Amino acid sequence: MPKLTSSANPPEEFICSITQDIMSEPVATSDGQIYERNAIEEWLKHNDKSPLTNLKLAHKNLIPIPLVKNQIQGFLQKNKICTKQEFLFAVATGITAEVEKLNYLAKHLKGKSSPSALFIAVNKGHVDMVDYLLEQGADPNESNVFSGWTLLQAAIAKSYTENISIDSSSLNNFFDMPCSEQAEKLHEKEVKIEAHTSNEHIEIARLLLEKGADPNAFDFGEDEEFPIIMAAHRGLIDIVNQLILHKADLEVFDCNAGCTALHCAAAQGHLDIVNLLLKHAPQLMDFTDMDGDTPLHRAAKYGHLNVVITLLSEGADHKCLNKANKTPAQMALAAGKKEVADAISFMRQAMKRVMLKSANKIEKLENLVQQQQQEISQLKEQLQLVVNHLELNEIKPKDNYSPSLF
Questions:
Q1: Predicted TM-score of the model (pTM)
Q2: CATH number of 250-368
Q3: What is the DSSP string of 89-122?
Q4: 12-124 classified as CATH 3.40.50.720
């Protein structure tokens, strides 16, 4: 697909040094430097120095420069170049044909001080627009200046959303609770959750990875999580699979709780993701989080029996103690999940029986091997007696003759 960006290069004096884009409302600071109004106003909220020279400004008053504004508008009209606002509005519609009609600058694809065109398309779930912008040279590894998320993080976050319903009479302070207490309320069914999965955003995540998005990159946004942990926590098996295909590091830890993707999947009861992670990184079973919990501890605490059975079957240590000196079974009992604790006990006893049977079979095999070795030794002795007898009586065996022992 050919690029539709304009070949005309705007003069440097039309470009804001903060946004790196053509200005629409140029204003001058006390030192005579010209910037985009919104950008310099945001800068001056936290600084009293020039963003260019780092010298202190005489004052923070801004002076409009209508002459430069008119020159910019004349340049855009002469070259039939749309403004960035017009370009972003067309992108937001999700109709690629509308964007293709526009003559825009390569700078319009970037978003240093505002959401980029690609971030807008990702956020809105416009799959075709994301594909088009990536073809035009948009960067799949850019991060949003407001949320701090990478595009891949944004796509994963939008792939799964939850609507939380709370009984206000009993849980007015739900959002003020620590995360651990919120999780308890959720698993006690005191809070209702309606989940929604967006296939469009799942497809966008795949597109970004195919176009070179780093599967391990993350910025400190709202979740401060690696993509693999975000996807595992949300139960997004398709994205987890794509991340694995694109060589995501499966041993990374969540920045907040110090847990792995397997911890998250086990805690949420996502059995399909648990199985997928165990296939590619079985060592994760032994990893512990900040509380010393293994994935088995997490699954037991939240009552996910099928995950507990799977982890135990794959060799998870049921005797492992966390920092509170509790085993997974004790965690289950403390959380009121008696059926899980009973299952762990049953599996433990079953494993003992299996190991005992295996030990008995091994012992029988060893005895059989020993018996056969004794028989072979006896046969060798008998054969030697026959040979000695033949030699003593000077009897030469015929060619290809083997003395029978029977």
A1: 0.70
A2: 1.25.40.20
A3: HHHHHT-HHHHHTS-B-GGGG--SSS--HHHHHH
A4: no
